[in-house]
Amino acid sequence: MTTIKDIASHAKVSVATVSYVLNNTRYVSPEKKERILQAIRELDYVPNAVARGLRVRRSQTLSLVVADITNPFYPDIAKACEEAAQEAGYLVNIINTNEDGQRLADALRLLREGKTDGMIITTALEKDRTVLQELKDYALPVVFAHRELPGLDMDSVVSDNFNGAVAATNHLLGLGHRKVAFMGGVEGSEITRLRREGYVFAMRQAGFAIEPEWLISGEARYEPSYLATRTLMELEASKRPTAIININDVGAIGVIDAAYDLRLRVPDDLAVVGFDDLFIANSRQIQLTTVRIPRYELGKRATLILLEKLKKPDREVDVKPTNRIVLPVELIVRRTCGGRGA
Amino acid sequence: MTTIKDIASHAKVSVATVSYVLNNTRYVSPEKKERILQAIRELDYVPNAVARGLRVRRSQTLSLVVADITNPFYPDIAKACEEAAQEAGYLVNIINTNEDGQRLADALRLLREGKTDGMIITTALEKDRTVLQELKDYALPVVFAHRELPGLDMDSVVSDNFNGAVAATNHLLGLGHRKVAFMGGVEGSEITRLRREGYVFAMRQAGFAIEPEWLISGEARYEPSYLATRTLMELEASKRPTAIININDVGAIGVIDAAYDLRLRVPDDLAVVGFDDLFIANSRQIQLTTVRIPRYELGKRATLILLEKLKKPDREVDVKPTNRIVLPVELIVRRTCGGRGA
DNA sequence: CTGAAAGCGCTAACAA
DNA sequence: TTGTTAGCGCTTTCAG
Q1: Where do the HTH lacI-type domain residues begin and end (chains A, B) (predicted)?
Q2: Is the CB of B17 under 7 A from strand C?
Q3: Which residues of A touch B59 (CB under 8 A)?
Q4: Which among A335, A3, A297 is positioned nearest to A175, based on CA atoms?
């Protein structure tokens, strides 16, 4: 392995000088510079980033913590995050927690271990409050994206979940539906809470009652949503919903498939709306009406805020006010609710 | 920031002793051990992984290089990779290259910079041969997964692309199709080459001619595949294919959507088969017949081989024979070709 | 059984 | 304009 020392002796200069040309951190005479560059090429030298990191206490690495990389929602956030980070000379590493609190805790430790300089967290759940609170206590450079924890008061960028749900519900109501069910996601998620509230608000405002059975969980996944739909469809006729709002598109596809298996036509017998607007929602065979979540934007903004924090000297971090950005969402009307998209 | 020195002085022992209990690397008397553990708790000490890494020249990090994290193919590989790595005490960071040779080169540098201990590469393309060849020259610990470079002779785990294509083609032929087109993926990909060969082989063996126009590229993406399908459908009737094999499921959905827009019924007017067997291929609305690629297995095996390499002392690496594992694939018959899945 | 100290590869203060 | 050197936080050899 060749080190800075090898380059120094090969070019007949001090290691300091090599370091200076490597980092362009002070003037070095053209002749020496050339000799150094030459030596670097000849010996095919690559500086050791770990040693450098130890010295300057920075890793030039950002981490993105996601609950499930397999969920098509996250890759777009990841991409945005990478693009913004790359621009600033950071590498981003994606960490998958599988919604597991222990793995989240492990990920967070990377910050204190010095392996990563900042973190974007998309996995905040109520059950993780304790460990997340520590981030705040230590004033570690993190920003929450998509999910957040109410009352924690840390930088975050989320989407307008409440109004998204209101829009979805009103759309259904406008189409004449009265019996609309709301299929939530993981428990302890502020997202589910807000969207459910939006749904309840819209129903109430329109003067329609909500049967308790209509508030059900599809876990934001295909299979549970499929099953929950069957449960819903077994309700007595007067309570059986004619429309279902699912917390995300993947779950909504579970709803659609359950309808298919039950010989129910979508949207005639059952209307469905999702959240996210994944690629697949737009395929001709699916044409899912959904609330588009600006996930690229979510990732981008979160990363930019994080980068901003990392620029400031430590002192200012505490002084600066907390950012909380709420991005607007948009109802994309397609075919699964009938109406003008049909 | 609290360091090992703080713990040592707080517990009134030497830093060496602290290190020994931290790593469980030699006997320490119970009293001292307890004092040290106590100090660690009291000061809430977390060892600096960068300093440790510099000293032991290991980062306990693996990297997975993917071409496009947004493609639902990769997250499954990532998950497998993470699970295997985690088991062995490694963290994995996913690096997205966007199929960009420069970003691949940057990623590979991490190995020599000491930021990562080993790498799983899923982005090998002909154009990257030079930079990939260097990995071999330096005997760096990498393994190729999914994609490989012929003649490079490095560890790799791939799927049986040739036979998958043969199976897909024969299935179509068995259903009575004679005019089947093959829509390839990115250029310079060994995967495309092998599958195309499998297709050609099966067609030849059955004694059917292949029109040059039938070998077209859909770039393994939705939009280009959509467009390519329209091109194909504009051929004069005698050449117009009645079936299309797409290099992947995402592209196959583009084919299906194009057919829909052209008022062609799938499978009656046009049969389509994909590769991958993504989650969405199984939804009721799509029911795509496809060649299942064992991507979880791909990621798992590749990671295990990599881990194995990392266990050996450097010397043995060169001596050990190259692994090349070819995993079997399976044709999943559903609805888009008609026949028994219809 | 434990500690002192060298040193991993690099940066940057200080000196010249 | 350049070099010497301390030291980042840790592991591990060597001596005791």
Answers
A1: 2-56
A2: yes
A3: 50, 115
A4: A335
